């Protein structure tokens, strides 16, 4: 029995009609790939763009940054600091970009935390896993990688 084509599609998909056959097909609006089967999950974006704020600590893979040559804060202090930044951003007290440029321990701080477009397999696994779960414009909860603690904003 054909699925109800009136029901809303999962995020990132569009319904199209084949000009040659008149049959309905489905287009992934991110990758522009199409399929005959009605999708039941949001379209895989393939690549996304994110900005992030990183707070490093003494046990970080590289406990040094443009801000601080030798980072000595504890993991607990780093997480508390990141949570305070997230609170300011969520309350709209300070823009994400301003916090990133001033406080992020990643060299992407100079670009407001922007990491550019990336696909799966490019970033540390915990970061990738959280980033690809985010909806457009969503801000993550704190995420731990070998580099330290991050909050991630999906921008594309
Ligand atoms: C992954 N990446 N992209 C940039 C970057 C991107 C655009 C412009 C300038 C720098 C910096 C980095 C990077 O690994 N930076 C590290 C810190 C870091 N570790 C990460 C792990 C996951 C995602 C981003 C991360 N950034 C550093 O500066 O010590």
UniProtKB/TrEMBL annotation:
Record-annotated membrane-spanning stretches: none
Keyword Isomerase included in the entry's annotation: yes
Lineage: Eukaryota, Metazoa, Ecdysozoa, Arthropoda, Hexapoda
One Gene Ontology term from the biological process aspect of the record: regulation of primary metabolic process
GO CC terms of this entry: cytosol; nucleus
Listed name of the protein: Peptidyl-prolyl cis-trans isomerase
Keyword Transcription part of the UniProt annotation: no
Domain WW: 7-41
A GO molecular-function annotation: peptidyl-prolyl cis-trans isomerase activity
Catalysed reactions listed for this entry: [protein]-peptidylproline (omega=180) = [protein]-peptidylproline (omega=0)
EC identifiers of the protein: 5.2.1.8
Keyword terms of this UniProt record: Isomerase, Rotamase
Domain PpiC residues, every copy: 45-156
SUPFAM superfamilies linked to this entry: FKBP-like (SSF54534), WW domain (SSF51045)
Species of origin: Manduca sexta (Tobacco hawkmoth)
PROSITE patterns: PPIC_PPIASE_2 (PS50198), WW_DOMAIN_1 (PS01159), WW_DOMAIN_2 (PS50020)
Pfam families: Rotamase, WW
């Amino acid at each position: 029995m054909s699925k109800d084509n009136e029901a809303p599609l999962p995020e990132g998909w569009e319904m199209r009609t084949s000009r040659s056959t008149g049959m309905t097909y489905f287009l992934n609006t991110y990758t522009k790939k199409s399929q005959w089967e009605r999708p039941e999950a949001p379209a895989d974006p393939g690549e996304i763009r994110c900005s992030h704020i990183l707070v490093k600590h003494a046990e970080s893979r590289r406990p040094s940054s443009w801000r601080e040559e030798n980072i000595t804060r504890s993991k607990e202090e780093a997480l508390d600091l990141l949570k305070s930044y997230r609170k300011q951003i969520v309350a709209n007290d300070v823009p994400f970009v301003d916090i990133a440029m001033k406080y992020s321990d990643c060299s992407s701080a100079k670009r407001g935390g922007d990491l550019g477009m990336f696909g799966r397999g490019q970033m540390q696994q915990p970061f990738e896993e959280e980033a690809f779960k985010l909806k457009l414009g969503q801000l993550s909860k704190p995420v731990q990688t070998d580099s330290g603690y991050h909050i991630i904003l999906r921008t594309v």
